[in-house]
Amino acid sequence: MYGSGLWSMGTELVFLLMLIPGILGWGKEGHYATCKIAEGYLTEEALAAVKQLLPDSAEGDLASVCSWPDEIRFHYRWSSALHYVDTPDFRCNYEYCRDCHDSAGRKDRCVTGAIYNYTMQLSSYQDSIVESKYNLTEALLFLSHFIGDVHQPLHVGFTGDLGGNTIIVRWYRRKTNLHHVWDTMIIDSALKTFYNSDLTIMIRALQQNITNDWLNDASSWAICANNHTVCPEPYASESISAACKFAYRNATPGSTLGDEYFLSRLPVVEKRLAQGGVRLAATLNRIFSSQPKIAVARR
């Protein structure tokens, strides 16, 4: 389906760049939360594979390196287009064939295309643990990050405003842009307001919601239609729908977003973090299962 080419980097210097700051996706806290939730739903088989593929610096903790693709994206510019997919302006629906391309029009270069690509690469794990034409450590980190990204509503935003990046607003008294509000500022405000600035407490609350308040919905989150290994299409569709209903609404250029916006949008953000975690775990469980499965397929 996809060749490696620019989609997979060599190992030299890759992990030396992990501490270099960059522009974040969900933000470090959001990606950490999604991957920490995922760790709790991994099968023993998947957990063993994940730990084998993680770099030594992670010390067996997937969540600790889930922001790596953000930290290297501007040093490896080919990867920048893989963090999002834009739809035509005011089209509140997502279509792979129409939308999945980079700014130069190259097809499959978007977040859903990247999810398919890195799932395909990781699916070679069972056949070639010792030798692979892919960097499977890298593939694991990219896939884990991109499944988080596709759940951030403005990572499936409108082309004209670059997913809210050009919409300048105030978050309370701070000048920022709408995309950044959804990447980090809603989460940061929630941590300070409700979770004593402790990400662990927030993650625990999300885990409790999965098994309590969201139980009826959560039972379906992990399912992929037709027994496919991965299915980012509905995740992207959910995100652009949430972008239209919640992110863009009442957030015009120059507006000030305060308590009303924050308190009504926080449940959306928290549920998307939880969904991303459950779905990442389900995808990794399918990839690393020794049981026969249907190959990665888009159509």
Automatic annotation (TrEMBL):
Catalysis performed (reactions): Endonucleolytic cleavage to 5'-phosphomononucleotide and 5'-phosphooligonucleotide end-products
Q: Does the keyword Membrane apply?
A: yes
Q: How does it assemble?
A: Monomer.
Reported EC number(s) for this entry are 3.1.30.1
Q: Which organism is it from?
A: Trema orientale (Charcoal tree)
Question: Could you state one GO biological process linked to this protein?
Answer: DNA catabolic process
TM ranges are 6-26
State what protein this is by name. Answer: Aspergillus nuclease S1
Q: Which UniProt keywords apply?
A: Disulfide bond, Endonuclease, Glycoprotein, Hydrolase, Membrane, Metal-binding, Nuclease, Signal, Transmembrane, Transmembrane helix
Give the Gene Ontology MF terms in alphabetical order: metal ion binding; nucleic acid binding; RNA endonuclease activity; single-stranded DNA endodeoxyribonuclease activity
| InterPro entries per the UniProt record, alphabetical | PLipase_C/P1_nuclease_dom_sf, S1/P1nuclease
Q: Which family does it belong to?
A: Belongs to the nuclease type I family.
Top enzyme class: hydrolase
